[in-house]
Amino acid sequence: MAHVTHEQLDRLLEQALLADDHEDLARRLEALVGAYISGDISRAAILVLAAEEWRQAGQPARALDCFQRAVDDGGEVGVDPRAGIADTLFELERPDEGREVIEAIRVDGEVTPATALTVAETLVAYGDLREAHRWATEGAQGAVEGSGEYTALLRTRYRIRVDLGLPEDELDALLDASH
Fold first, then answer.
1. Which tens digits make up the pLDDT trace of 6-16?
2. DSSP strand pairing (2-4 vs 36-39)
3. Who contacts 164 (Cβ-Cβ below 8 Å, separation ≥6)?
4. Coil, strand or helix: which one is 139?
5. How far apart are CA 116 and CA 27, in angstroms?
6. Which of 68, 135, 157, 169 is the most exposed place for a label (fewest CB within 10 A)?
């Protein structure tokens, strides 16, 4: 059993980056979850990292499993793992299921700015600009002014607004002020 520290995880990620082997890293992260007893980072957060590595390795079904395990674990994560599930479902050409997951996130409420950004980026990638604009707007309105997430949401929202041909508004002025 293991106590997982940020330093251990950073070393593992660095080694894998040098080896450029996403599958190996995903396996090692899952093994770490299996040995986990405590740590500075939650088991769910490690599962999300493993899921992202499985996606990078071209194995979205394995990623979906890790994202779901992160949801089931319920530990603290930066972005709701369901946002990763939705994105992976779109990748697997299951957009209706992806949209259902996104709607479940919205209905549950308490969406963090990081989750709103992830959902907005997913929706942009799969062509739903109007819904992406709504997620980016709500995320920006809930973000801490001056934070990286705030700026990223404003920038994402701006790009979407331009693509939609919508007129400039008060949130666009905030992007100018945040530089």
1. 888 888 878 77
2. parallel
3. 129, 130, 133
4. helix
5. 28
6. 169
